[in-house]
Recover the amino acids of this structure.
């Protein structure tokens, strides 16, 4: 199977790219050269050439996600599987090579390799935090204005699927994913209706989750999540987006599974998008747990999602 190493991008369609660009800029992304009247490419401060793509179309729609793999040989292996495209030159800015696949529900999953990397954009250093025991910030002061935060990278995305087990089997045939936690129906011991998956990079630390696959009565994306510098970036950006007239979805709060401090918004076309910081990291030795609470139980503190959040 292919070795996935990063979440590269999510791709959407929408009728007005100017409206999307205005929101994503306020959210903390930067427009990339190669964008035009037909497609919008946005990047973060990290090395990925772009992390959010919107193609112009009459109606809004989620297309899929792109996953960076470790080597060209990974693309050859994926191309040999049923339903995959051949290995082909990528047409998006940054170049490289790609294999296009579709999940059993038709969601596009694109494996990429060799795309040009950007030099990281300058960002402030995270503020050190003085807890009750450890005073890490001495004669140094927090000064954070209300302003857009800077998005570092795409951390994870959540897919709603019609058949959880079939989709997980499809993914596990192709990529080196490991389960981090399982979702069970509230108050029940089975069946598994959702799986948080992470990358398998051996002893290297990775995020608790790279993707959540969730059984649902509809197919598409629940949200895409972007990592920011620290808690002050989450909170100051929250105030800035309110100031700009955008309406929050759920947040700020702290997740249970993954522990991230989160803040959910809806973009102008109804797609949920998340700022997060302070997430759990694990290596390949982590063993998955089982969660059978409600959507509200997924939040430890803060603004809790409604019961229908994952429906």
């Amino acid at each position: 199977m292919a070795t996935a190493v990063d979440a590269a991008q999510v791709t959407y369609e929408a009728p007005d790219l100017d409206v999307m660009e205005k929101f994503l800029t306020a959210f903390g992304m930067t427009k990339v050269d190669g964008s035009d009247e037909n497609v919008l490419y946005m990047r973060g401060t990290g090395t990925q050439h772009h992390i959010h793509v919107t193609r112009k179309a009459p109606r809004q729609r989620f297309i899929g996600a792109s996953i960076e793999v470790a080597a060209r040989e990974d693309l050859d292996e994926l191309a040999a599987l049923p339903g995959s495209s051949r290995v082909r030159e990528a047409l998006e800015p940054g170049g490289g090579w790609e294999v296009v696949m579709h999940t059993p529900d038709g969601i596009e999953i694109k494996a990429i390799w060799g795309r040009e990397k950007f030099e990281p954009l300058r960002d402030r250093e995270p503020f050190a935090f003085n807890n009750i025991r450890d005073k890490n910030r001495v004669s140094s002061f927090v000064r954070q204005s209300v302003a857009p935060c800077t998005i570092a990278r795409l951390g994870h995305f959540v897919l709603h699927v019609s058949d959880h087990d079939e989709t997980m089997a499809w993914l596990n045939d192709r990529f080196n994913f490991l389960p981090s936690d399982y979702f069970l129906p509230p108050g029940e011991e089975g069946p598994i209706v959702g799986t948080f998956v992470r990358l398998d990079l051996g002893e290297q630390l990775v995020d608790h989750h790279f993707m959540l696959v969730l059984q649902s009565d509809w197919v598409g994306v629940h949200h895409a999540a972007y990592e920011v510098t620290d808690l002050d970036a989450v909170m100051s950006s929250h105030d800035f987006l309110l100031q700009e007239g955008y309406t929050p979805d759920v947040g700020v709060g702290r997740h249970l599974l993954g522990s991230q401090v989160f803040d959910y918004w809806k973009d102008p076309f109804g797609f949920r998008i998340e700022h997060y910081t302070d997430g759990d990291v694990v290596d390949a030795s982590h063993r998955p747990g089982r969660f059978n609470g409600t959507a509200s139980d997924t939040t430890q503190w803060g603004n809790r999602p409604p019961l229908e959040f994952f429906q």
